[in-house]
Amino acid sequence: MKKISVLLAEDHVVVRQGLRSLLCAEADIDVVGEAGNGRLAVKMARELRPDVVIMDIAMPLLNGLEATCQIVAEGIPTRVLILSSYADDEYVHQLTEAGACGYLIKQSAASELIMAVREVARGNAYYSPPILKRLIELYREFYVKNRLLGRKDGHLTSREQEVLQMVAEGHVNKQIASALCLSIKTVEKHRQQLMDKLDIHDIAGLTRYAISHGVVESMGRVRGVAETLDGSEAGEGAAASAQPHVAAAPRP
User: Fold this and answer.
1) Which of 36, 64, 171, 248 could form a disulfide with 175 if both were Cys (CB 3.0 to 4.6 A apart)?
2) What pTM does this model have?
3) Are residues 156 and 74 in the same domain?
């Protein structure tokens, strides 16, 4: 089995020695080099091309952020795992944006570091639980803000979202009213409100919108409804087209 090659980029000798002892105790990990500053870390990554670089942030000559940027920019086939005392949002954001594949705080357990090295070497990302928790919180905050400020459907109510989905699936007002335990007039009101909010005023447009935004799956049946409607009721138009044509009997 090929061992995971690791380069240690850490300016404190005692810390490097401890990391080397810890990693070399694992049968599938091999420490191939050590760098005491960021500039040397980039040079050794270029020459040794290790699977993983364990990178500190605060280092002389070239800090871990810039070293990571240079390694990634040069296309060196090495994945950077940050190991730092700093866990500020800005550091995490900058290092992740720079191309780091993982971020551990130095208070992490030894077993977690080994797990992180293996995961990063496999091509996955790994973050310390406190950092991952914060990243999820930031993502949620950003997502909610983005929906409210940027996306058209950010202000649709839950009921309007339900009506949108059922309209896109080809249901007529009567069917929607029955499914949602509403009156037909209430359904019509909700549908008109979501049309006004989205500035889409035909069923075909609503259907295409619902498909493109993942409200409904991009199924052939739904696409067919969207493509054939010309502004008439989705379900009614589809139902009418499905009825067999009967020629009028000639008058005697």
Assistant:
1) 171
2) 0.59
3) no
